Amino acid sequence: MDEMCELAADSLEWLSGWSASLHVKHGMGSISSAVLGKCLDQLPRNLRSYVDDLPASNQSPAPRPPVTMPFLAQSFTRFSDLPAELRLKIWDEAAAGPSMHIFDVCFPSWRSSGRSERAFQSADGTMSRSDHDRWTKYRECVFLDTIETGPAELARQTSVARHVYDPSAYRMRQTMRLVCSEASAAVAKRMREGGINTVYLPGRNEKMQYDNDEDVVFLRFRDGGAITDLSHGVLFGEFEASGMNGLTEVLEGPWSAEVAETLRDARCIALDVAETWVPSAVGSVLSEEATYLACCLHQGLRVLYLVDHCHGRCTRCKRRGTASGQLQTRGVLYRQLHSQGKDDENDDGAVMARTPDLIQGVGKTYREVFDFEGLGWSDAHPHYVFARAMDESIRSQQADADKQDFQGVRVLLVEDEVVGGVDTTMLMDCGLGGGASEGNARGVRNMSFRWLA
């Protein structure tokens, strides 16, 4: 026992000058102060009390093969000397969820964005013969790809969020698998313990699996109004849907077989709230848009998240000063949105007492908020109208299929985290302003959604 205490004390000594300088939740081979804190809390309290008093060790670490880390600015070189139990707990925390996985939705568009083709191109913009042959199989359908990032993406004129670095957790876990056998085992263990869903990336000829019980797939359409383009492209015949029978099959016509499989099984899906409306035409498109999306997403869906990137960064909508901690009061709008599908007071009480969801990305934290009035929404705000329309449509379509898994539409705010060695810059200019959009959205409230009765 004395030997173990001495080893634990040595571990704390090595960590004392290192962990405080890191702020990332988990960083491929380097471990964050948050993760270490959870693990070290399980050590005897008298050992933890030494942390502030112990000087950093000058002992040279044992040599080991170098590991290349994409965003590793500082590393704890003596991590391998920690007790095995502590190392395993740290890796388990690093692999823990819930996590956010973000993907670009690539689809044919008359706007000639070229996004579909770029998914199959190499870094220098060229496309091999084999890649071109594969692209021809997907050029007329919707598929998923890793999100575009970097300076060119930041400079793009759009009303939705643009990133310098991909905050998706799946990429971090892919690297964790390469760090060491213990890290790989921690990732594999998490996958074994939960249900699995698969995301296919045909442009890269890859697939990614994630924990379908906890994690969230974030579908990024890349432009405000892109969802409208997609739904109307199907409804009005711009997309080929030959060989399909029935309304559902026609609506699902442009989706690739792989995307259809992913969405059919996905339990938690997120959308960028800025992509869900067109200021000049909200009233005329929202009904069809919600019905179309619900038809594509409803089958296994448990939660639909609407992600708001504006707070703290948007230069147009004047909502820079509000933090998620100030938006935890459940007001009238929240109660109205979550009153659907509640048969008794016990159900309503559970909704009102539920703790906010917290989803982790790399350099981003997605926190649920309840105070929609604090977001600047009203019952005629296009984001709120879209949320209620989607809630009604998904519940209705699940009821028609004799399935009631849907727990509702929830709203997440995005918060930045400091990650050593990573540029986590994200730009947002939503363009939301004026009363025209709310005036158009009021027209939707007079349509045939049952929640209007």
TrEMBL record:
InterPro entries, sorted: 2EXR
Ranges of residues in domain 2EXR: 76-188
One Pfam assignment: 2EXR
Domain of life: Eukaryota
UniProt name for this protein: 2EXR domain-containing protein
Record lineage: Eukaryota, Fungi, Dikarya, Ascomycota, Pezizomycotina
